[in-house]
Write a structure and sequence with these properties.
Number of strands: 2
Strand content: under 5%
Distance between the termini: 35 Å
Number of helices: 4
Shape: globular
Radius of gyration: 20 Å
Helix content: 40-55%
Largest sheet: 2 strands, antiparallel
């Protein structure tokens, strides 16, 4: 993948994953921007403060995050953010869709090209027949809904463990 494709991947596809990742941690406990920046980078996301902070503010305006810190502390003060009930609903919906996509991607890797695969890739000159372009065939039937995402508060069995422990932003 060249640099142009890599940059487009980060902005066009992975930006949505950043938001899911933020909501996941904010649902576990309060997070601050600097901790979230390091966390996203540790997972391979190329995010800068100039991208992250406006994203966090937008998620606040949407009602997905709220600030747990003191009001009027100044523009550079730490602002611990946590997921709201609405943010948890959005997270649950995103995780269900992700589960459905993962199940479908596993099935897509199944049949070999030319042996029962979906459609053809004749309309896409850079792909091989049966490759990823063939997955866009409009004749593919819809899938049943995926089960609720495990590990999300409200979607887990009684007594089940959470996905991660809550981050302690005060020591960072």
């Amino acid at each position: 993948m060249d640099a142009t494709d890599h940059k487009a991947l980060q902005r066009e596809i992975l930006l949505g994953f950043w938001k899911v990742h933020i909501l996941l941690h904010a649902a576990e406990g309060p997070v601050v921007g600097q901790w979230m920046l390091r966390e996203l980078r540790a997972h391979g996301y190329e995010v800068s403060p100039g991208t992250l902070y406006p994203l966090l503010h937008r998620m606040e305006r949407l009602g997905w995050l709220c600030c747990d810190g003191p009001e009027g502390a100044g523009p550079k003060a730490r602002r611990p953010l946590r997921a709201t009930a609405r943010g948890r609903e959005v997270l649950g919906a995103a995780l269900r869709q992700l589960g459905e996509l993962r199940a479908e991607a596993g099935e897509a890797a199944g049949p070999e090209p030319g042996h029962g695969g979906r459609g053809t890739a004749a309309h896409c000159p850079d792909s091989g027949a049966g490759g990823p372009a063939s997955l866009t065939d409009a004749s593919v039937p819809p899938r049943p809904a995926a089960p609720a995402a495990p590990g999300l508060p409200g979607n887990r069995a009684p007594g089940a463990a959470t996905i991660h422990s809550a981050p302690d932003f005060r020591d960072r």
